[in-house]
Write a structure and sequence with these properties.
Helices cover about 30% and strands about 15% of the residues. The protein has about 325 residues and is α/β, with parallel strands linked by helices. Strands 8-7-6-9-10-11-12 form a 7-stranded parallel sheet.
């Protein structure tokens, strides 16, 4: 892959301290280039961290892989730019997309998280059903108290958002024998949902939930959607799983309900401040399992992202539409 063979310029951008499995580093690129040598010969790369060379690189870049691309005067700063690839699926840090210049396609990495999310939601549902947080608390306190639970089959899971993550949550619930109720923007959902409703019907379905699984993206329509009042619609025996975004839920109200034992428990993989600071009350909130944003990611994540990028690059060369192209109006 030498510069005199290259036809296109790709700039890789990451941030200092970003987990290595999520960082589009030069080393990860070269490993992927060895897997896709014919396509890689057409690419000249630059790689930067914390925007150290980004402005200079964008002057000639045709493509960039960057989860937080610059939004001010982007066309002026990047006159040749044709395509931006983000490393994640969620786009909330860069919404609204009114900054995206005409002629630039934005693609995300949706579809890469489903298998791991299905495993994680399976674990979360079972852990909450058998009241694992309470059992572990007893173990720490050397208390022997029988906490019994019936089989989980027959319970009801309400899944908010039924895209890639929501469908994974639905599969997890379905294979455990739960009734799956999907709540989505369209009000439609394919199997494994048993029923589907629009967001406007959320207040009607929450009282019947044994589990509320948050799997929606953070958009203007989902921010603060699960309010204190809506949490109040849940049964005292219900539990919450959040693999979406923290800002979808009133976390203060959720924590208060858990502290008053007005909910059975929660598995939370996302928080408004990450890493979760040591002084956060979430560490000691009863009934809660705190996860460090790992429910949907796996080792080798960035390798699969680069493989996906090369597959899309081949489509670009053929003039075909790119997979995972984002609709700027919808934000996903």
């Amino acid at each position: 892959m030498t510069s005199n063979q290259a036809t296109y310029h790709l700039h890789l951008e990451t941030q200092h301290g970003r987990p290595v499995h999520l960082a589009p580093t030069e080393a990860a690129w070269h490993a992927a280039a060895n897997r896709h040598p014919e396509l890689a010969r057409l690419i000249r790369i630059t790689a930067g961290t914390d925007a150290d060379i980004r402005d200079e690189a964008l002057k000639t870049a045709d493509f960039t892989i960057d989860s937080t691309p610059p939004r001010e005067r982007l066309r002026e700063r990047a006159p040749r730019l044709k395509w931006i690839q983000t490393t994640g699926a969620g786009l909330d840090p860069i919404l609204p997309l009114d900054w995206l210049p005409p002629g630039v396609t934005l693609t995300n990495n949706r579809g890469a998280h489903g298998r791991k999310a299905e495993d994680s939601v399976t674990l979360a549902l079972l852990a909450l059903h058998v009241r694992l947080p309470a059992l572990l608390e007893q173990q720490r306190n050397r208390v022997w108290n029988e906490i019994l639970s019936a089989p989980i089959a027959g319970r009801t899971a309400v899944v908010l958002g039924f895209g890639d993550l929501g469908q994974a949550a639905g599969r997890a619930a379905h294979k455990l024998g739960l009734r799956v109720i999907a709540v989505s923007r369209s009000g439609k959902a394919s199997p494994p949902a048993d029923e589907a409703y629009p967001v406007a019907a959320l207040d009607d379905v929450l009282p019947g939930a044994d589990f509320l699984v948050i799997a929606a993206p953070l958009l203007p329509g989902t921010r603060a959607l699960i309010t204190r009042a809506r949490l109040g619609l849940l049964k005292r025996t219900a539990a919450v799983v959040n693999i979406g975004r923290a800002a979808i839920v009133d976390y203060t109200a959720l924590r208060e309900k858990l502290e008053r034992r007005e909910l059975a428990g929660a598995v939370l993989d996302v928080f408004e401040e990450e890493p979760l600071p040591p002084q956060s009350p979430w560490w000691t909130t009863p009934g809660v399992i705190v996860l460090p944003h790992v429910s949907c990611d796996t080792p080798g994540y960035i390798d699969r992202l680069f493989d996906f990028w090369f597959e899309n690059f081949a489509r670009f060369l053929r003039g075909d539409p790119l997979v995972n192209a984002v609709d700027p109006k919808l934000g996903y």
